[in-house]
Amino acid sequence: MNQIKAVFNGEFNYLENIKISPFSRAYTFSDSIYEVIPFYKNNIIAFEAHLNRLQASSDALNIKIKINNISLEIQSLISSCDSDSGYVYYQVTRGKDLIRSHIYLDDLEVETFGYVTPFTFETKSLKVMVCSDDRWGRCDIKSTSLLSNVLNMNEAKEKSCDEIIMHRNNILTEAGASNLFFIKDGQVCTPSLSNNILPGITRSILISALSEAKINVLESNFSLYDLQQASSAWLTSSTKGIAPIKDILNVEHTLDRNDNFYLECKKIFDVKFFS
Fold this sequence. Notes:
Layout: E1 5-8, E2 11-14, H1 25-29, E3 32-40, E4 43-44, H2 47-60, H3 67-80, E5 86-93, E6 111-118, E7 126-132, H4 147-158, E8 163-168, E9 171-175, E10 179-184, E11 187-191, H5 201-212, E12 217-220, H6 224-228, E13 232-237, E14 241-248, H7 260-274
Parallel strand pairs: 7-8, 7-14, 11-12
Antiparallel strand pairs: 1-2, 1-6, 3-4, 3-5, 5-6, 8-9, 10-11, 10-13, 13-14
């Protein structure tokens, strides 16, 4: 088995050799942020957008980062990968406490960690479960605090589902690790961005690609009823690309994976994402 190549605080090594303190605030408080940066045939997908979002997340948590150093480390990890397609997971943590404390010291040294792994990009049809969105109120920050997502997605897994779609008081938000799109009455729809929704990079790529093709995307508040009326639906993320939903476990629906409008949107997206 190939060893996973990684970096910790600027030092490159194999993942198995990296040691992190149990007093790291990532471990004790999830006081950390992250990005997943995909690359395809040695081309980094939307690199600047991922770096900008990491900077925005760090600013929101008042974590001081050196984005140019991070950029170079990510590029070095990609160059070291045994495959020309994959992704980098990169995490920034506020630092390491002397002893666990809710109040962090002002002079903590920021921890950075990343690894690279090969990945095969392929379209997979998904079965999803709808559930209540009980996450914290700043889901627009790409925080490692994902316990609600973990619990709901593993409950979905026990029911042979691949993902979840969340809602707050019947208003759709997003999936567990993806953004949601659907087609209703010939219109491409997606929940509008808010503190409850992460501004997905792949989401943005799709909206831009469709706009260039003169296809409007309606961003608004949508209900579970709207999803029930959809002719097709899909999820987007850095590793899923655009993944059609084939079945919704606990909601009546009328989805058609062979919907021509969806197939047109996917074709437009694939050209933009993988070029």
